[in-house]
Amino acid sequence: MKRIILIGYMGAGKTTVGKQLAKQLGLPFYDLDWYIETRMRKKVPEIFTERGEEGFRIIEKNMLHEVAEFEDVVISCGGGTPCFFDNMDYMNGQATVVYLKGTPEVLFKHLKMGKGVRPLLQGKNDEELLQFITEQLQKREEFYLKANTIVEIPCMEDFDKIDLTVKKVLEKIENA
Is residue 114 a contact partner of residue 59, using CB atoms and an 8 Å limit? Predict the structure, then answer.
């Protein structure tokens, strides 16, 4: 039985790498946010608006416990998932947890490519965005570093870099 959970800051490539990894391993892929949206029949921002962050995090924890029981899967989590409740300890007990670790500069480049779709980032200029990423990453890193596998990510502006990252993840998992 194989369960792999990808964690990391937003823009680290969890969904992109997760899909490729699942494809190579012949396993189903689940993005936790998409799973939540499907089960709740609402978009994550709507849930945040209706229930606040605390309400969303409770739903997120419950859905994490649901999806992490599936066998032979690759799961990507939202950037905040590991930072609440006992989520990190739970994930480490259920799966091989891979932290896709990016520098603030790499994450900035990734997020700048898709800045419009992330509510937390809207209205920030480049300097503010880089500062925001740096500060949030510092707060979250203590949780991310509890993952049993860490893979440094390059800037993934082309498919070769995505393939390289997937290859690194596979090597680390096989050698774990």
Answer: no
